[in-house]
Amino acid sequence: MYKAFMCAMLLAFASLAFCTVAHAQLGAPPIAAPTADIEVHQLPLAYKPISFNPEKATKAYLARVSGAARARSDSYFEGGYVLLVVDTLYGLVVMGLLLWLKISARMRTIAQNFTRSRFWQVPIYFIMFVILVTAITFPLSVYENFFREHAYGLSNQNFGQWLGDFGIEFAISLIGTTILVTLLYAGIRAIKRAWWIWGAALTIAFLAFVMMIYPVFLAPLLNHYKPLPDGPVKQQILSMARANGVPATDVYEFDASRQSDRISANVSGLFGTTRISVTDNLLKRGTPREAKAILGHEIGHYVMNHVAVNLLWLSIIYIIGFWFADRAFRFLTGLFGGNWDVRTIDDPAGLPVLYAAFTIYLFFATPFINTIIRTQEAQADMFGVNTTREPDAFATSVLKLSEYRKLDPSPLEEWIFFDHPSGRNRIAMMMRWKAEHINDPDIKAGPVSPQ
User: Which residues pair with 252 in a beta bridge?
Assistant: First the structure.
């Protein structure tokens, strides 16, 4: 049936074609096609193009910080390059003294005299270790975090206030790290050679726990937190949070001005403790647009799940680091263990060896760690401007951050030392975004970028 049907259709088309050709051959006159007049008009432009040069705008913004202010900012940040090396060498010297003078071995013996339990010997030793190391490094801490900050006008505290905060941070660190190290050595004794896997997993779990409790239990120990009063800024922040799935029902303000004038905000917490916080400095020194732009950036970190991504990267970094520390310990104690009275890796007296090895590892890993963080900060910048549509407000916020961050480093400087994109790159990103949206109604309405 199908073949018969197709044959019939072919015959029908053939007959039609034949008739058409025959009709033409008989000389039938052609029939003219209908015509119509067509009018051509120039359509009006949907918009008037706006001339905007993102490179010129970036340079104009950067030029707003010049002279003494730029020199002070560069000097402060570049001094950090030197301090990174100084801190590393200082720490290695301190660890060397503890080993070669057998101070670490004596502290181990004191712990053994207190108890025969190897579990409890570790925290007893470690508390002595932390107190002694903190005392030895205290002069450097005072210089870096008090005198140097005052020299650059970046601290609002007198020495008593600074010392109070230092004491609180020391107490928190002592409690937390004592628990961590005690469990670490328990794992070393139980697992033996593969302890470095346990060490990395335990450290990551500990960091996740700290992130979870930080906004609720730790941050209020240093600053006073209170709900931000109702107003347009708070409503804009909460609206952004709701629109982007941030599980926060309030915004908190805290008195960062008791420490410095730095502007900041954060979306912190984990596993149900998420909290949006802004500094009083941001509310006092920044405009509502700048506050919105910065919070858009911080919400971006939450939406892109950077906490989990960071924990994943840190897992890799710590696994490699603990493996390196294990190999370094076995090599160095094989050479000098008799001089140090340290033979086995489960001996707490060998902690300075592990500490020194990990310090060296982190020093050389600094550019890679900074690159991971800097990449996430750039992603949050882009999320923030797409969410808030405030490129100029973010650019002016970056200029305020230049009080303690170098604005225009070389590419090599940025790769090694910067854990955020440089000011130049952040502003350039905002201006490129603006160039692509320059004819959008809200962007056309301003503010106007410098050119």
Answer: 227, 277
H-type alpha helices, 244-341:
280-285, 288-303, 306-340
Choose among 417, 416, 353, 362: nearest CA to 92.
353
Contact 213, 273 (CB under 8 A): yes
User: What HEC string does 73-127 produce?
Assistant: HHHHHHHHHHHHHHHHHHHHHHHHHHHHCCHHHHHHHHHHHHCCCHHHHHHHHHH
Q: How far apart are CA 404 and CA 75, in angstroms?
A: 9
pTM to 2 decimals? 0.86
CA 353 to chain centre: 30
Give the tokens for residue 378: 């750039």
Give tens-digit pLDDT for 134-182.
999 999 999 999 999 999 999 999 999 999 999 999 999 999 999 999 9
Instruction: Find, among 61, 52, 11, the residue nearest to 423 by Cα.
Output: 61
Distances (CA, A) of 66 to 40, 60, 133, 204, 287: 56, 11, 41, 42, 22
Exposure string (b/e) for 276-293, b if CB count within 10 Å is 16 or more? bbbbbbbbebbeebbbbb
206, amino acid identity? F
**Rounded-to-integer distance, Cα 271 and Cα 201, Å:** 18
Type of residue found at 319: I
Q: How far apart, in whole angstroms, are the C-alpha atoms of residue 142 and residue 250?
A: 37
Characterize 157-174 residue by residue with b for buried, 16 or more Cβ atoms within 10 angstroms of its Cβ, and e for exposed. Answer: beeeebeebbeeeeeeee
Q: Are the beta carbons of 244 and 276 closer than 8 angstroms?
A: no
Nearest CA-CA partner of 261 in 286, 242, 238: 286
* Helix, strand, coil abundance in the chain, percent, nearest 5: 70, 5, 25
Instruction: Give tens-digit pLDDT for 31-78.
Output: 554 555 666 656 555 555 668 999 999 999 999 999 999 999 999 999
Q: CA-to-CA distance for 220 and 295, rounded, in angstroms?
A: 20
Q: With contact defined as beta carbons under 8 Å apart, do 172 and 222 qualify?
A: no
- Round to whole Å and give the CA distance between 241 and 276: 9
Whole-angstrom distance, CA of residue 110 vs CA of residue 103: 11
Amino acid occupying residue 440: D
